[in-house]
TrEMBL record:
GO BP terms in the entry: DNA repair; translation
Pfam families per UniProt: PNK3P (PF08645), Ribosomal_S8 (PF00410)
Protein name in the entry: DNA 3'-phosphatase
GO molecular function: ATP-dependent polydeoxyribonucleotide 5'-hydroxyl-kinase activity; double-stranded DNA binding; polynucleotide 3'-phosphatase activity; structural constituent of ribosome
One Gene Ontology cellular component annotation held by this UniProt entry: ribonucleoprotein complex
Entry's family note: Belongs to the universal ribosomal protein uS8 family.
Length: 353
């Protein structure tokens, strides 16, 4: 019955925000309390209070088997400019169709892929997972802890500016920044031919949860990579291999941090040689142009004004130094308007002129 009750809670919360009520009351259960605290921690609601049917407690009342049926959780709903912060909350698992995922499947889902019949997760969404021990946590925490679990519900905001928070983006190039070839050659020989470039990548990604931004920002790790050798067609072997490669990369990186991780790749469009518009679009997508950054903003339903530029940065090896093949990484950092680091600066603390 827990999912039946949770379905009613989801519908009730949406009805309350549509009616612009200041508070919403829901039945007191362990599952509902965990979901409510999750919503509070993610910034969707302003408060969680214990209470009775009539309202929040003035004095704390202990919950017992005798009074639990009359106990309620009172949730403070958040609004800005008369618009609700919590826009959508929907069940994923249903009473007659539970969605239990392995850790590999959770990683695949967190990477923005469809899993079974569940639609891909967007970067701006929060998905709550019930682990095998009964704890409820967000998807990225479950991935980081290498748990298995049941997908409970997904929550999103109608307008990200309603939270009053901005995005801090930790941007990285991929090749020779986050990863290098396992074979030692300049270009990889297949989806398997990669490894983490520096041991320090592990610790620095973990640190991103607490540094480079403050508590008033929503943190996202975004990897922007030019992949001109990848042919972007349905039956392309290079595209298929690259898709497997980035899936394994995200799986590895997701064990290092609970922050959302997205990868954008500017591939080769065969139509670019025939179609002027396709050629222009392909150029804009590639660094140093900011097409991949703009696509990220579009995917998280944000504008340029929603980014905290002082808390964001981009790190890449194409910095225009002697011996560098390009200056596209420092170029995109300048066009976006964020700090730039070389991999040596960011991961190894090497001071460069």
């Amino acid at each position: 019955m827990s999912l039946v009750n949770l379905a009613n809670v989801c519908s009730h919360l949406q009805n309350c925000v549509m009616a612009k009520l200041p508070l919403a009351k829901i039945p007191y259960t362990r599952l509902h309390l965990q979901i409510a605290l999750g919503l509070y921690n993610e910034g969707f609601i302003s408060s969680v209070q214990r209470g009775s049917i009539n309202g929040p407690d003035i004095k704390q009342v202990e919950v017992t088997p005798d009074n639990v049926s009359t106990r309620r959780l009172w949730l403070g709903l958040k609004y800005k400019d008369n618009k609700p912060v919590l826009s959508h909350i929907h069940l994923i698992s249903k009473p007659n169709r539970r969605v239990h995922l392995t850790n590999d499947e959770l990683v695949h889902f967190a990477a923005g892929n469809r899993v079974r019949f569940v639609k891909p997760m967007k970067p701006d969404e929060v998905v709550f997972v019930r682990a095998s021990n009964g704890d409820v946590l967000n998807l990225y925490e479950a991935v980081k802890k290498q748990l298995t679990g049941e997908l409970l519900c997904r929550v999103s905001l109608g307008d990200k500016s309603l939270t009053g928070k901005k995005y801090s983006i930790a941007g990285f190039d991929m090749d020779e920044t986050i990863i290098t070839t396992q074979s030692g050659t300049r270009f990889g020989h297949g989806a398997w031919d990669w490894c983490i470039k520096y041991p320090e990548v592990v610790s620095r990604l973990k640190e991103l949860e607490t540094i480079h931004s403050n508590d008033d920002t929503i943190k996202v790790i975004a990897i922007f990579t030019n992949q001109g050798a990848i042919n972007n067609t349905k039956r392309s072997k290079s595209l298929s291999g690259f898709t497997h490669k980035i899936s394994s990369i995200i799986k590895k990186l997701s064990t290092l941090t609970s922050l959302p991780i997205v990868i954008y790749a500017a591939t080769r469009d065969p139509q670019a040689n025939k179609n002027v518009l396709a050629k222009k679009a392909a150029k804009i997508a590639r660094k140093p142009d900011i097409g991949m950054f703009q696509q990220l903003l579009n995917d998280i339903n944000a504008t340029k004004e929603d980014v905290s530029y002082q808390d964001s940065f981009f790190c890449g090896d194409a910095a225009g130094r002697p011996g560098d093949f390009s200056e596209c990484d420092i170029g995109i950092a300048k066009k976006i308007g964020v700090k730039f680091y070389t991999p040596e600066q960011y991961f190894l603390d090497v001071k460069e002129k």
